[in-house]
Amino acid sequence: MPRFLDIEASSLSMDSYPIEIAWSDPSGAIESHLINPYAVDEWIDWDYNAQQIHGISRKQCREQGVHPSYLCSRMNQVITQGEILYADGGAFDENWIDVLYSAGSSLGHAQFRVVHSDAVMLPLLMKIEHDEKKRWQLYETLKLEARAIVKERHRASVDVQYLIELWKLCINMSEAV
Length: 177
Hints:
Layout: E1 3-9, E2 18-24, E3 30-34, H1 48-54, H2 58-64, H3 68-78, E4 84-87, H4 91-104, E5 113-116, H5 118-126, H6 132-149, H7 156-175
Parallel strand pairs: 1-4, 4-5
Antiparallel strand pairs: 1-2, 2-3
């Protein structure tokens, strides 16, 4: 199974930073951590509209979050150098990993890659549907099915579970052909 990643952030602005991150291992087990923004002086951006969406307060991050250096160290322990983690946030998730590693790692960058989850899902569906437009329609239908399985959203671990369920739907459909 591919590994999936999701990040919740302080906002969607240029000054945003990650406040929660989750990733799966190859068996589908999920690890999740809140991140303490008070550990990094520059991390002052906060959007209360985003807080309403993900339900995570800055205070909760301060009280329950880990230091970015701990998190980078932990991720380096369990994610192999050069490995790909798939995320549906695209460039946002890539940027937030860069922000995290800039603050929490002496290397200044992650040794793994973040790639959009479409890159691992859509090739599976090519076996079933050769027409690109119909393939995207099928993919959207499968996304709705995965959301019916994982009803919650906008928390990192829940969103990783959604990606796992979506991948399972795609792989099961492709293997049935």
